[in-house]
Amino acid sequence: AQKVTQAQTEISVVEKEDVTLDCVYETRDTTYYLFWYKQPPSGELVFLIRRNSFDEQNEISGRYSWNFQKSTSSFNFTITASQVVDSAVYFCALSGQGGSEKLVFGKGTKLTVNP
Amino acid sequence: DVKVTQSSRYLVKRTGEKVFLECVQDMDHENMFWYRQDPGLGLRLIYFSYDVKMKEKGDIPEGYSVSREKKERFSLILESASTNQTSMYLCASSQPGGLKTQYFGPGTRLLVL
Fold first, then answer.
1. What are phi and psi of A4, to 5 degrees?
2. How far A31 CA sits from the closest chain B CA (Å)?
3. CB A39 within 8 A of CB A46
4. Model confidence band, residue A34 (pLDDT cutoffs 50, 70, 90)
5. B102 closest CB neighbour out of A42, A43, A103
6. Is the dihedral of CA A99, A100, A106, A110 positive or negative?
7. Model pLDDT for residues A91-111, shown as the tens digit of each residue
């Protein structure tokens, strides 16, 4: 069975601090995809990034970066120099091969960035 | 840009009412999904559809049904609303195959009194 664990339920930081959101996954598939979504207070889940299991290269997009490590089954998300607008719930998700179109979501991490 | 719209942002219904939640996507996606989101429980899949008139149960289908008569529209039906169905309902769509990225609508907050 596939599983995604986001151990941090809530994180609170002060603006300009760096913050890392952890994501650990379990799967027996050899090919799989990992995702991060952001859910601001408005409610809509916004797609941030997708990684496939064959690409362990870290990715940076502006203040966002992602660290994918198959050896530890982790796909962590770091926000550098956090801003108040980064306040949201962040979800990590996993999908596997075998024809399933479903995503397995973690329970989310609520990030609050205080001014 | 992918656009997924949901018919209502907020809805208040009474116990026993039949409730329809509508979702429309404009990207010609094959797959559509309905989730509910509750505090502490994350997102849970209710139903999904991989083609017109095709549906498959998710993790928590009890008390719900779905309809997909057209590719762009996926409806969630609460046959007889109950207070434990008070929740945030999120619709998503995706293309089939390897990429699997799901794009979400803005959500419907349903309150059942």
1. -125, 130
2. 10
3. yes
4. very high
5. A103
6. positive
7. 999 986 655 678 899 999 999
Whether the per-residue pLDDT at B2 is higher than 60: the answer is yes
Which among B23, B36, B93, B100 is the top mutation candidate for probing chain A, defined by the most A β-carbons within 10 Å of its own β-carbon? Answer: B100
- Strand ranges inside chain B, DSSP E: 4-6, 10-13, 19-25, 31-38, 42-51, 54-57, 64-70, 73-78, 87-94, 103-104, 108-112
pLDDT tens sequence across B25-38: 998 999 999 999 99
- Interatomic CA distance for residues B91 and B45, integer angstroms: 10
Query: Mean pLDDT score of chain A, rounded to an integer?
Result: 92
**Chain A neighbors of B88, CB-CB under 8 A:** 43
Q: What is the dihedral of CA A28, A46, A67, A19, to 10 degrees?
A: -130
